[in-house]
Backbone:
């Protein structure tokens, strides 16, 4: 847990979120600024700053983040979606608590800008 981390505050219930899935290890909630008809984030409750600091002990947890993202997308009726992690400011990371974006419900170009 990190005192000033926005997503740790969501985990602790200090900031509200539109939750789609929660258990003792992970949380999925809608992105506050959706970039697609379906856009939510999946985070581990454990504070990890980003993809670049995932340790060997976190490998199973991050696999779960991916599985939960897929299951929530399916529950929302979306079969085609993108799962994205940003690492570092130049790659678009603004919140330094690892999160996986799940975007779907519209066609998307590859590669992204
Ligand atoms: P990134 O730019 O990859 O670090 O993604 C951070 C994401 O968090 C952005 O898509 C924001 O719209 C989203 N975000 C920021 N604050 C909140 C919040 N309070 N609730 C839900 N999503 C948020
Ligand atoms: Zn955090």
Residues:
């Amino acid at each position: 847990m990190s005192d000033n981390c926005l997503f740790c505050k969501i985990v602790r219930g200090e900031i509200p979120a539109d939750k789609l899935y929660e258990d003792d290890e992970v949380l999925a909630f809608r992105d506050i600024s959706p970039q697609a008809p379906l856009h939510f984030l999946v985070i581990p409750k454990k504070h990890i700053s980003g993809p670049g600091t995932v340790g060997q002990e976190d490998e199973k947890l991050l696999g779960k983040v991916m599985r939960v993202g897929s299951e929530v997308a399916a529950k929302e009726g979306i079969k085609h979606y993108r799962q994205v992690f940003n690492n570092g400011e130049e790659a678009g990371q603004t919140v330094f608590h690892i999160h996986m974006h799940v975007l779907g419900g519209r066609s998307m170009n590859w590669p992204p800008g």
